[in-house]
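Input.
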Amino acid sequence: MKHSSLCLCMVTVTVLFTATQGFSLQGDRDRSTQPGARSEDRITREVRHELVMLPYYGVFDNLAYRVDGSTVTLMGQVTRPTLKSDAGNVVKGIEGVNKVDNQILVLPLSPMDDQSRLAVYRAIYGHPGLDRYALQAVPPIHIIVNNGKVTLEGVVATQGDKDMAAIRANGVSGVFSVVNNLRVEK
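Output.
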């Protein structure tokens, strides 16, 4: 699958990594003949691979990126400062990457947020129907908690799964709000 020059890929360990902005078939053919398009596609694939392979990347982290020529912009939220620096360092080592703009937000340390993370995890992944998503190395539903506000990121198979995840997260005590950014697999 071809990626746009400004694609935004949510990094999850599923086949659904390639959920990006697409071009028409004709646009893909035109783009593949442009100089640098193959290089940018290679960089996009390598960035995704390197981020997924980070050892401490998990369900409570969300990593995203954008490739613009030889510049890679890292975005998202992580629970550990070392994950932010590790992500920047591995991307800097990719051939063809000249600049890395690391905009990853390190979430504040909070025992209350830690309790909310675990409670939301249990509510979502312990629910029959959504429990199948827990079987992957890094489950595809990422739970981001920042000062009691929950954001769900990632990809699910159906609209029903997306809605159920939001309902389950909303039912957790101590959660002030839930933003459901889950995407439905096409």
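DSSP finds five helices and nine strands in the chain.
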